Amino acid sequence: MVESDLQIAGDILSVQHLLRPAPEHPATVAEFVGLARSIAENRSEWEHLVRYDATTRWYHRLRTVPQALGSARAGETPFGYEVWLLSWVPGQGSGLHDHGDSSGVLTVLEGELTEHTARGPLALGAGSQRIFAPGYAHEVVNDTLDGAVSLHVYFPGLTRMPMHSCSPALTETLPV
Q1: CA distance 117 to 72
Q2: At a CB cut-off of 8 Å and minimum separation 6, what does 120 contact?
Q3: How, if at all, do strands 103-110 and 129-132 pair?
Q4: Which residue from 154, 38, 161, 151 is spatially nearest to 87, judged by alpha carbons?
Q5: Sheet holding 120-125, edge to edge
Q6: Does residue 152 contact residue 106 with C-beta atoms inside 8 Å?
Q7: Which class for 68: exposed (0-12), middle (13-18), buried (19 or more C-beta within 10 A)?
Q8: Is the pLDDT of residue 109 over 70?
Q9: What is the predicted pLDDT for the residue at 166?
């Protein structure tokens, strides 16, 4: 039986040598992960922009890169992307949502966030990354007593974010 790199190595995000530096216009998931990592490492690009607001969610679009015609490899469709910076005060959450037709990479820059999905909660500390495909539903919450900052790369750019009515962070026991 031949094993794939993922079966051998485990989580691709934990194997740094397999991740290439981000090209100017990423075209693969691994390249978008690299883009997020390179932005995360360049604190001077984003640190001075962060604001915390207890009354409303704070976010800032760092980049919008339109579709780059002719930049895709043979058989691929070129697409653009967006990069967003979000802050989270203690107790703030996103609500259960998906990202429509966009895939994405979530990177925790500072603090700790909890991602809630149907599979249960997952604590994400600074440097943690999550990759998601179109239609992936989750809720992100700052369950700590300190602020947090995250970076979100959406490809193609985010055009809608449908909210879902039931939160996986909350469980309800029904009488039988």
Answers
A1: 32
A2: 168
A3: antiparallel
A4: 151
A5: 120-125, 112-117, 139-141
A6: yes
A7: middle
A8: yes
A9: 65
